Amino acid sequence: MRVLVVEDHEELAHTVATGLRREGMAVDVALDGETALDRASVNRYDVVVLDRDLPGLHGDEVCRTLVRTGDPARVLMLTAAGTIDDRVSGLGIGADDYLPKPFAFAELVARIRALTRRAHPALPPVLVHGDLRLDPASRVATRAGLRLSLSPKEFAVLELLLAAGGAVVSAEELLERCWDEFADPFTQTVKVTVSRLRRKLGDPPLIETVPQAGYRI
């Protein structure tokens, strides 16, 4: 899952980003609206966590632009104003969810995960393939009832492959969706991560390499 955090308070932005990375998400940060739209124009995000009260280009205009351009990212709007009218207004311009400040970090994580489950087609809360089960909310993956010890990136790759439902996922998409903007596009990190994941999943093998296309469950 890849998330863009748009927040002009730099310390808060990086604190939130660090916490989300610990939850296994790939996170980019933008400190203003113009940078946010630039990032969204070149990267595919699952969720944009958007501070409504941005200086310069207001968060409302960022949200309207994302909606107008057909960006598939879900928008979770944050604001210090928490009245019902504020929430109705934010949702009215295209936000998918609304969270007033100050907020509990656990609730922010839960709302981000809930938004990703609204993908098309909608994803179940627990992903299952044969004897493999992955619960994104609790960060637990098991095979044949035994818990798998996965790194955050291994978990993210497995989650994306399971969510694809047997469709091929390219190495480029895995890199884009599971790593942040600082990932080297020429690195072998995807291949290495998939190799480690295969070993941890054990036999019979679950991940197939499709030559010149990518990987699939």
TrEMBL record:
<keyword id="KW-0238">DNA-binding</keyword>
<feature type="modified residue" description="4-aspartylphosphate">
    <location>
        <position position="51"/>
    </location>
</feature>
<dbReference type="InterPro" id="IPR001789">
    <property type="entry name" value="Sig_transdc_resp-reg_receiver"/>
</dbReference>
<feature type="DNA-binding region" description="OmpR/PhoB-type">
    <location>
        <begin position="124"/>
        <end position="217"/>
    </location>
</feature>
<feature type="domain" description="OmpR/PhoB-type">
    <location>
        <begin position="124"/>
        <end position="217"/>
    </location>
</feature>
<protein>
    <submittedName>
        <fullName>Response regulator transcription factor</fullName>
    </submittedName>
</protein>
<dbReference type="Pfam" id="PF00072">
    <property type="entry name" value="Response_reg"/>
</dbReference>
<feature type="domain" description="Response regulatory">
    <location>
        <begin position="2"/>
        <end position="116"/>
    </location>
</feature>
<dbReference type="InterPro" id="IPR036388">
    <property type="entry name" value="WH-like_DNA-bd_sf"/>
</dbReference>
<dbReference type="InterPro" id="IPR001867">
    <property type="entry name" value="OmpR/PhoB-type_DNA-bd"/>
</dbReference>
<dbReference type="InterPro" id="IPR011006">
    <property type="entry name" value="CheY-like_superfamily"/>
</dbReference>
<dbReference type="Pfam" id="PF00486">
    <property type="entry name" value="Trans_reg_C"/>
</dbReference>
<dbReference type="InterPro" id="IPR039420">
    <property type="entry name" value="WalR-like"/>
</dbReference>
<keyword id="KW-0597">Phosphoprotein</keyword>
